[in-house]
Each structure stands twice: as structure tokens, then as C-alpha cells.
Amino acid sequence: MTQRELAGDRLSVSMISRIESGNVQPSFKTLTLIARRLGVSLAFFQDGQESFKSKTVSVVNAVRELFEKEEYGQAITIGQEMLERSDCLDGDTEAANSLKMLVGRSLYNVDRVPEAIIFIDDVYHKTSFSTHPVDSMESLFWLANCHFRSDQYALARTRYKEVHDKTRNLKRMNDLHCQSEIYMATCAYRLGDLEDAMEIYGHLFSASASGLPPRLKIDAGMGLSWTHYKMHNVEKAIEIGGEVRSLSLKHGKYELPRIEHALGIYRFANDPSSKAAEYWKHLRQTFGQTSQPIEKANVLEHMATYYLAVRDDPDEAERCARQALGLLPDSRQTLLRARLFRILGQVEQHRQHAGFALHWYQIAWSLFEVSQARQEMRQTADLIKTLPE
After folding, report:
1. What global pTM score does this model have?
2. How far apart are CA 106 and CA 76, in angstroms?
3. Architecture of domain 290-389 in this structure
4. Most exposed residue of 69, 124, 171, 337, measured as fewest CB within 10 angstroms of its CB?
5. Would you kindly state where each structural domain of the chain is located, as residue ranges?
6. How far apart are alpha carbons 159 and 206 in whole angstroms?
7. Cβ count within 10 A of residue 139
């Protein structure tokens, strides 16, 4: 095989030449490509040079490097290949578990959640809290994240609570303990258990939680302000949102666009004057520049509500709601899609089309039921009751 054939379209001939002459030490990624072309295992290059343990460490570190660089596709491909090769990890359970977690989290980050669950769940069942507490709780936490991402909030809440309870007195796992508590509150919020959500968010955002990392405190504060808003305590939502904004400015402007977006919504709800509306429109323009479809859909949901409730413009409200639905995948964001379908029902009710309104309300109610969002179900049922027979 010539150097050009070995290089192929992924490497340069000069790189192959420098590697052969010993002038360059190839990366794990490059070495993997060369091994594939030659039809040999990585051990072919490593036998007699380093121990089996050092080989497994290099494999895991290489995939971790890809993961940290957000090269998730490569991390998945190489990680899965190494897990299947008996010459790389056979007998090293710890390395295999680390690699499975990296592959699982990479799959999660590219939105291949069902596949991610397979890898992460395997790690969870092969570790125990008593002997591997960090691995056990990390894998359980990421399992909960997978359920959360899949809108399975009741199951996610149970998993987060287990992580929270088992890490309560472990200082080295304090961040995981606090993160799981925030997610517990968020699951409660999504399920409509607003009093539970407020209690947890309030505890985390209070002065007594001074040891909480600033980013987690900001997350807790935002959750608390949204919960107050949801419970129609708009002035309190504005007050807490202002505190969160000040905290964000002190800590690198973490989540500042989302905080200002929320404050715009709160202020508009508190005073739908022309000034508040203009401020809110400015925020919409800011978020219109984002590449994140879910963020855009969230803004469009509030715009639809604005056009319907304040502008008395059902056509524009419908346009915003349908545009938002077009941005969302069918398998995710169940609650947001349900709220958008409910807006479509309100649009048709405003037009006095009771049959169409009932159709959209029923779709919304069924999606709220899937997510076990009891408060949202009650609100939708109340709207159905207002329809003429």
C-alpha cells in the first residue's frame, strides 16, 4: 500500500510520511484511521510499547477529548467501535463504563435519546452506589436527563429525587445534588405542581443557599420567577427576575438573554401599555436572530397570546402558533406543543367556531395528559366548558 493510498481523503501524504519517519506522534483519531485502512487493531501499533491498562486509558481519553470538543459524531463512532473490539477493553470494566457514558452523553447531545438510554442504563446497572458512588449517581442523573428530554417528567422526577437523596451528604457530589434538586422543581413545574416547585426553587434561591454555585442559583431564581408568573403573582415575578438579572450581570451575563426575555413577558403581563409592548417587541426581534428553534417557538407562543388577548387579532395569533408548531419535532416539547394547540382552540373560539375549537382543545388536553400536567389539563377542561353546546 502506497502512502497516498494509506492517506486516502482524510489524511495528507506528508502527514503519513512524518509519522513513518518518527517525526510526528499521531493522535488517537489519526491512529484509528490508519488502523482501519491497514485492517489491523490498535494493539498492532502498541504491543510491546505500553501496558494493557495504559492502552485502555488512552482509548477513553481520546474519546473524552472528542466529546469535550463537541465532536459528538466522532466520539460515538470511535467509542462504539472500541467497545466492540475485544483487543481494546476486554476485562477493564471501569474503562468500558467510562466509554459507555461518553457515548451515551454524545448520543444525548445529538438528540438520539433512546440510544443514549441503552448505554447509560447499562452503566447504571453495572455500578453500585456503595462501591462506585460517582459513576452510579452520574449515570442515574443522565438517565433522568434522558427522561426529561423525552417529556417523561414524572419518571424523571423520581430519578432526580433518588440522586438528590443519595448525594445529600457527599461534598464531592454537591453540584450533582443541587442540579438534581433544580430539575426536581422543574419537573414539578412542568407537571403543574406549582406549590412544590415554588418550595424547592425558593429554598435554593434563598439567602440560606449562599453556598450554591452562581449559575445554579440563577437557574433556581429563574424557575422561581416563572412559577410566580404561572401563579399570577406577576409583581413578585418581576421582583425576583430583577434580582436574577443583577446576579447574572455579576457572573458573566449567564443566561442574560433568557432572563430579559422573561422580564419582558412579566412586565407586559403587568402593564400591557404601549411602552411595555414595545419593550416586548424588541425582545422578540432579539430572539428572532437565534438559531435555536425551541427558543423561537417559545417566543412565538407568547406573541400568539399577545395578538389574541391584547390586539384582538386571531389571524396573527394563528400564524404565530402554526409557525411555532412547525419548528418543533413531534417527539419532543409535548407541553409547548399542547399550549400551542390550545391557542389554536382559543383562536377558533374567538371566531365562534365551536367545533374547530373543541378539536384543538381535545388535542391539547390529550398531550397534557401524556405529560401528566394536571393544572394545564384543568385549565383546558375549563375552556371546553365555556364552549356552546
Report:
1. 0.69
2. 6
3. Alpha Horseshoe (1.25)
4. 171
5. 1-40, 45-126, 290-389
6. 25
7. 26
